[in-house]
Amino acid sequence: MCFQLLTWCKSNVQRFVKLLDTWSLILGLVFGSIGFGYFIYGKKQANLVARYSGIALMIFPYFVENKYAALVVGVVLMALPKFIQL
Fold this sequence. Notes:
Blueprint: H1 2-19, H2 22-45, H3 48-59, H4 67-83
Helix pairs in contact: 2-3, 2-4, 3-4
C-alpha cells in the first residue's frame, strides 16, 4: 500500500513539473487572456461562438501538454468566431 502511494505521488509530481514548462506557462497565459477577452465580448454581444470559444481558450491549456499542439489548437479556437456565425 505504501509503495503504491509513493509511486502515485512520484508520477503526479512528475506530471506537475511537466506542466510548469516555460512554454506551457506562456501559452496558457496568452491563450487564457485572449479567451477571457473573447468570453467578455461574447457575453456583451450575445455571440455564442465567441463566448464558447473564449471558455475553450481558457480551459484547453490544462489538457494539452505538447506546445506545438497547444499553439495549433489555440490559433484554431481564436479563428473560430471569424468563420462561424450563428
